[in-house]
């Protein structure tokens, strides 16, 4: 290999989640059922040590069919882009064979907080027609000490303007309970050197 340069990158779900895939439901009828699965996966993910307390799923917004699941794999892979939304969206695109997740079906991304600045863009360009989040606001950064980046104040309106319907505050308190447990633990907070949550948050 010339100059020792890498030529490919692989992001995979952690072994514990791969083992659990056959036992996951084929469909989840309501946003609450969908978010409950997200919270369960997010809470286990950080306890397993491969990444932060974040999970996401892609579902068919009409039938509730579970299309893909993702969890944060940053620590397990050493790749900072390995966020739950990126994993769920990429695995859905791989399964369906298209970069446009809105091409033939009305798909929704369900995630346990408003996307960070990276996943904000990933969601915008994925083609999903709906975004369902547990909540928004400074609580995530305050409880976990993660830096979510400079997400614009009108983030939801920007999604709506691009044809992506946003539903918020689905099992919000359950999300905060996961973040609180994480923040009170000794788990690694993997902000890059010099970054961190903005102290100006109330």
Describe this structure in words.
By secondary structure, this protein is an alpha/beta fold. It has a single domain (26-183), classed as Cytidine Deaminase, domain 2. The protein is 37% helix and 12% strand. The chain contains 8 helices and 5 strands, in the order H-H-E-E-H-H-E-H-E-H-H-E-H. A 5-stranded mixed β-sheet has the order 2-1-3-4-5, with helices on both faces. Strand 1 (55-60) and strand 2 form a beta hairpin. Helix 2 (31-48) runs parallel beside helix 8. The N and C termini lie far apart (51 Å).
Total of helices = 8
Globally, the shape reads globular
Count the beta strands: 5
Tell me the radius of gyration.
16 Å
CATH architecture: 3-Layer(aba) Sandwich
CATH superfamily: Cytidine Deaminase, domain 2
Features:
202 residues; alpha/beta; Cytidine Deaminase, domain 2
Give a topology summary.
Blueprint: H1 15-20, H2 31-48, E1 55-60, E2 66-71, H3 74-77, H4 84-96, E3 107-111, H5 117-124, E4 130-133, H6 139-144, H7 155-161, E5 165-167, H8 172-183
Parallel strand pairs: 3-4, 4-5
Antiparallel strand pairs: 1-2, 1-3
Helix pairs in contact: 2-8
Task: Kindly summarize this structure in a few lines.
With 202 residues, this protein is of the alpha/beta class. The chain is built from 8 helices and 5 strands. Helix content is 37%, strand content 12%.
